[in-house]
Write a structure and sequence with these properties.
Length: 235
């Protein structure tokens, strides 16, 4: 089943990185303003498949945006404010929804959480389904220059320089939310959480939180689906 939510974007990040396994399934859709080829890898179904495999699906509601009004209201404002962002995804995962109801940022209590160190915000002004661009702009303000925003009472929204990057960050953030909820439950029973200190967090975030790291981390998921489907999603 297809998860509830939206994904937009291209598959290639802006920054050049050394890669030995760059996928070849690319389409040239046109030219950018500076004359570069605008390419998109034909993987649109893949993030939805990856998300559904991880239990992010909820019924058959879902779409590739900006087809519908809520997707356009949010995503268009993100792309206008953040020109380096080529991909945006928003899914109503269980852990993401559960953590979002607290309206707070994640604590830096695990190494994986450091991917989002000073790179995620919280949007606390929930007003139901987003339909106007003004609210889209407020969500952009909460996102800032980060890669993620927790939408209070709603779910998670992720951005990246590629579909691959944004998809992996979303998977990682959802797991981080789940870990936070488990840690909070243990803390309520009397166990003390140990938060990673600022210096170590900042250093680790630079090593594991960049666009190329997100792109690279998604490639096993890509290879897995190619093997399982024999590349049918590329047709």
């Amino acid at each position: 089943m297809i998860p509830t939510g939206e994904i937009t974007g291209t598959s290639e990040p802006n920054k050049t990185a050394t890669r030995t396994n760059t996928p070849t399934q690319l389409q040239v859709l046109g030219k950018t303003k500076d004359g570069r080829d605008l390419k998109v890898r034909r993987i649109w179904p893949l993030p939805f498949v990856c998300f559904a495999d991880r239990g992010f699906d909820e019924g058959v509601a879902g779409h590739i945006s900006p087809i519908n009004a809520p997707a356009f209201a949010i995503h268009s404002e993100i792309h206008k404010a953040r020109p380096e962002v080529n991909a945006t995804c928003h899914i109503h995962s269980v852990a993401g929804k559960a953590f979002s109801c607290f309206g707070r940022e994640l604590e830096m209590i695990t190494q994986d959480a450091l991917r989002f160190y000073k790179s995620h915000g919280v949007y606390r002004d929930f007003k139901g389904v987003v339909l106007d661009q003004d609210e889209g702009q407020r969500i952009v303000a909460a996102l800032g220059q980060g890669k993620a925003v927790i939408l209070q009472n709603h779910g998670l929204l992720m951005v990246g320089e590629s579909v691959d990057e944004a998809t992996f960050w979303f998977i990682s953030l959802d797991k981080t939310c789940q870990t936070q909820l488990l840690a909070d439950a243990a803390a309520a029973a009397g166990y003390k959480k140990i938060v990673i200190d600022e210096q170590e967090a900042a250093y680790a975030a630079m090593r594991i939180g960049g666009p190329e790291k997100g792109w690279l981390a998604f490639q096993p998921y890509y290879a897995e689906q190619v093997a399982e489907t024999r590349g049918e999603f590329l047709q």
